[in-house]
């Protein structure tokens, strides 16, 4: 594994960014390779390589307004195997692109002081479920939001996840074993800072 990274800050730390470039080589990984006759067939791959870049940025736009965003590109390919058709294909369950953004604003004064709202989205690229690429799950984007209320050291929070109620799959091994993502849901939390 080889990795190089850089982290930097500007504007007295109000804007921070980091990036990482990596390459990971693996040998003898076992992957699903189902056929019409054998849905549970597994195949050992000689070599694979993942290389990519990750980028994160976060900033304090105003004293009570912050944003964080990230993007990752992952070129995860099979470089040596028993079947030449599999060479240079994206590895199963390895999305090539993922991205996230989240922004939060807190009311600093007045009767609504301590009230805050957050809005964000995330994206995950399509993925192959098996080496033969006959089975893929589609990309998806989710929209999320949150309401916060802070009183001293106590914070009440309500998270609204998957607001659009998007049906999506977070992974799988074949069409028999798919892992669904959560549908629209509401999560309440209570936190205390010591």
UniProtKB/TrEMBL annotation:
GO molecular function, one term: siderophore uptake transmembrane transporter activity
Major localisation: membrane
Domain TonB-dependent receptor-like beta-barrel intervals: 3-163
Coiled coil: none
Keywords from the named record: Cell outer membrane, Ion transport, Iron, Iron transport, Membrane, Receptor, Signal, TonB box, Transmembrane, Transmembrane beta strand, Transport
Statement: the UniProt record of this protein carries the keyword DNA repair: no
GO CC terms in record: cell outer membrane
Topology class, membrane: Multi-pass membrane protein
Cellular location(s): Cell outer membrane
InterPro entries: Beta-barrel_TonB, Beta-barrel_TonB_sf, TonB-dep_rcpt-like
Membrane-spanning parts: none
Keyword Membrane included in the entry's annotation: yes
Matches recorded under PANTHER family: FERRICHROME IRON RECEPTOR-RELATED, FERRICHROME OUTER MEMBRANE TRANSPORTER_PHAGE RECEPTOR
Similarity comment text for this entry: Belongs to the TonB-dependent receptor family.
Protein's name according to its UniProt entry: Iron complex outermembrane receptor protein
């Amino acid at each position: 594994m080889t990795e190089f990274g850089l982290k930097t800050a500007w504007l007295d730390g109000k804007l921070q960014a980091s990036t990482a470039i990596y390459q990971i080589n693996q040998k003898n990984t076992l992957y699903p390779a189902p056929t019409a006759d054998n849905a549970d067939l597994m195949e050992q791959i000689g070599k694979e390589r993942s290389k990519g870049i990750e980028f994160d940025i976060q900033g304090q736009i105003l004293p009570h307004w912050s944003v964080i965003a990230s993007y990752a590109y992952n070129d995860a390919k099979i470089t040596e195997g028993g079947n030449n058709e599999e060479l240079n294909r994206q590895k199963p369950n390895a999305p090539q692109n993922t991205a996230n953004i989240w922004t939060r604003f807190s009311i600093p004064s007045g009767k609504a002081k301590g009230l805050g709202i957050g809005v964000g989205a995330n994206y995950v690229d399509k993925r192959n479920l098996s080496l033969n690429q006959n089975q893929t799950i589609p990309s998806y984007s989710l929209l999320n939001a949150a309401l916060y209320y802070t009183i001293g050291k106590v914070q009440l929070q309500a998270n609204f996840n998957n607001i659009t109620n998007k049906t999506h799959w977070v992974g799988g091994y074949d069409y028999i074993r798919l892992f669904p993502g959560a549908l629209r849901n509401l999560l309440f939390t209570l936190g205390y800072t010591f």
